[in-house]
Amino acid sequence: MNKKEINEIKKQFTPEHCTITRICGCYVDGEKNKKTELAQTFLMLTEEENFKYFTIFKSTLSGTLGKNLLNMEFPNEQEMEGGTQEFLMRLKNSKLEDAALVEEFYDKVISTYNYGENYYIVMVYGVYDVPGRTSDGIENDDASDYVYDYVLCSICPVKLTEAGLCYNEKNNMIESRIRDWVVGAPAHGFLFPAFNDRATDIHGLLYYTKNSEMMQEDFIDVTLGCGAPLSYKAQQETFQDIIENSLGDQCDFETVKTIHENLNEYVEVRKDAPEPPQLDKMDMKKLLEDSGVKQTAIENFDAAFDTIVCNEEQPKFSASNVASTRSFDIKMPDVVIKVKPERTDLVETRMIDGRQYLLIEMNDSVEVNGICVRNVNVDTGEIME
Predict the structure, then answer these.
(1) What residues does 155 pair with on adjacent strands?
(2) Listed residue (50, 10, 381) closest to 208, CA to CA
(3) Can you list the pairs that 144-147 forms with residues at least 24 positions away whose Cβ atoms lie under 8 Å?
(4) Taken in order 10, 12, 14, 18, is the CA torsion positive or negative?
(5) pLDDT of residue 10
(6) What mean pLDDT, rounded, does the chain reach?
């Protein structure tokens, strides 16, 4: 799913465009016990409850593609009888009205979702009458001839409010506040099936994680059966390891700076693409070639990639995850330098008296701890204009 397709589904989570017909929920305590459950027609909820749920559902489809929102595909075996995709299909086709299937889903989540505190599993079934579009992209509700029905699941932490004092208007007194268990914003969730090319794609789903470093691998692997992808940080570290091992002795400042510049250009050129740009093995190899690395590094690349990845199914790296588009960082044990990515030309290396130095050009606007300082000629001691 791309940004436009995700936003199209998010638009349904409003009172005016609501496509949700049924809602089910299960409150689980820190000991993995089911405390209470909900199953009813969505429109039977109060207006205030609807609004709260809409906020949860919108959050489950929010974030950065490739970081918080991940497109996942089912292996072929999961689409056979007894597979995870086949189970989700039965759950969807039941419109969440089969109590036994819903209970089985809760049990699957509880057994694989690793969270030592209370949480709320909420699941909705919706039916979206997809409007047609004219050749210039304008929606035409009258031309709709396709229905997309789906299940959206959100898993929300439930926290006890902080202890404190409050004003009791009835008694006109300051007193201890009653502590409540409050459902928070979703930490994880998924939309099934995927809405690709504005149509149902039963071979995939869209997964949501609030924290890109807390993927819930067991839940993804076992309950969803898709195989957990590399996290945001893992993608960065794996990419960096491959570059370092490929370059070897050629992993010097100027070479890495050139790779950084070319990678940022790769992202910039594709920034308006409907889907976030990705880098596969061949793209990474071409990146090195375009950066002018020596032939030995190109020859080392295949072995370095295969050794570090150690996976039959070669991963694709999200280009925005592995690129440093906000800052060009130079780190040493006692010094950290941050440079705007487009101004790496201000930094160069130079050998002085047999030692290598980083040279940074100073302009007429220099601050030290917030204090503007003047540039001084080291030879004459005079302030430079």
Answers:
(1) 121, 188
(2) 10
(3) 146/198, 146/199
(4) negative
(5) 95
(6) 88
Q: What is the pLDDT of residues 240-285, one digit of tens each?
A: 999 999 998 888 888 998 999 999 888 888 877 777 788 888 999 9
Q: Over the stretch 111-135, which tens digit does the pLDDT of each residue have?
A: 999 999 999 999 999 999 998 876 6
Q: What would the two tokens of residue 364 be?
A: 């007429």
Q: Going by DSSP bridges, is the β-strand pair 317-318/146-160 parallel, antiparallel, or unpaired?
A: unpaired
What distance in Å separates the CA atoms of residue 105 and residue 87, rounded to the nearest whole number? Answer: 9
Predicted confidence at residue 320, as pLDDT, reads 84
Tokens for 45, please give them.
Answer: 């909820």
Angle at 128 between CA 95 and CA 96, to 5 degrees: 10
Q: What is the largest CA-CA distance in the chain?
A: 86
The SS3 of residue 244 is helix
Residue 339 near residue 346 (C-beta atoms within 8 A): yes
Q: Say if CB 125 and CB 21 are below 8 A apart.
A: yes
Report how far residue 320's alpha carbon sits from residue 279's, in angstroms, rounded to the nearest whole number.
Answer: 10
| C-alpha of 208 from chain center | 7
Q: How far apart are CA 341 and CA 352, in angstroms?
A: 26
Closest CA to 301 of 225, 379, 219, 246: 246
The neighbour count for residue 259, using CB atoms within 10 Å, is: 20
Contact 125, 101 (CB under 8 A): no
One-letter identity of residue 130: V
Contact 89, 202 (CB under 8 A): yes
Residue 324 corresponds to which tokens in the numbers above? 């440093």
Location of structure tokens 């080392």? 300
Tokens of 327: 């800052």
> Alpha-carbon torsion 122, 192, 142, 8, what sign?
positive
DSSP string covering 262-315, please? Answer: HHHHHHHHTTTSSS--EE-HHHHHHHHHHTT--HHHHHHHHHHHHHHH--SS--
- Pick the closest to residue 113 from 220, 26, 202, 211 (CA basis): 220
CB 59 within 8 A of CB 148: no
